[in-house]
Amino acid sequence: MAHIDYFFATISPYTYLCGIRPEEIARAHGATITYRPVDLMSVFTRTGGQPVPERHPSRQDYRLQDLARRAALRDLPLNVKPAFFPTNPAPSAYAIIAAQEAGGGSLSTLVATMTRACWAMDRDIADDDVIRDCLTQAGFDPALADKGLLAGAEAYHRNTEEAVRLGVFGAPFFITYGDQRFWGEDRLDDLEAHLSGRI
Fold it and tell me: Hey, how many other C-beta atoms are within 10 angstroms of the C-beta on 60?
């Protein structure tokens, strides 16, 4: 069976723009998917990338234009300069890791809800109440926000180390069985074409 490792960051606007499409693509092609939140700043610094404020102004300007266009194409609301960015992504990542372990809800909805909270609703996804609300909306026990924090931190670290080892350098990043790699929300169509055998 085909499998997708989905490396992402809850503070990534391009992860937000993916919505639930990665899950829909996997399901349509009989593939399984593992959600692997990573420390994106660590990935950047270790693979030659730069945090947004350190990029050349021309790159920062292009990013804002690109985000607005991608959001319009996806018909999604987007604040390109949200109130709580950057924020600490670790607590939301730990909650997603705990939810994946616990089961009982929709992980695709949880990731979409977490990222929407940041990029469309000006909510702080480092805040426990916001995390609990997102867990609830996705059908998970909101108490997961307070459980397994050490295990979550360890898994978050492992995900980040594995991401760097496998060649991940940004988010979202998809790696299929057979080591086909797809970087960015704008490569979801390519991922789908690969899973269907067209490329």
Answer: 12
Tell how far CA 143 is from the center of its chain: 21
pLDDT at 186: 97
Domain spans of the chain? 3-195
Instruction: List pLDDT tens digits, range 26-82.
Output: 999 999 999 999 999 999 999 999 999 999 999 999 999 999 999 999 999 999 999
Write a three-state SS string for the chain.
CCEEEEEECCCCHHHHHHCCHHHHHHHHCCCEEEEEECCHHHHHHHHCCCCHHHCCHHHHHHHHHHHHHHHHHHCCCCCCCCCCCCCCCHHHHHHHHHHHHHCCCCHHHHHHHHHHHHHCCCCCCCCHHHHHHHHHHCCCCHHHHHCCHHHHHHHHHHHHHHHHHHCCCCCCEEEECCCCEEECHHHHHHHHHHHCCCC
Q: Which residues in the chain come in under a pLDDT of 70?
A: none
Which CATH fold would you assign to the domain 3-195?
Glutaredoxin (3.40.30)
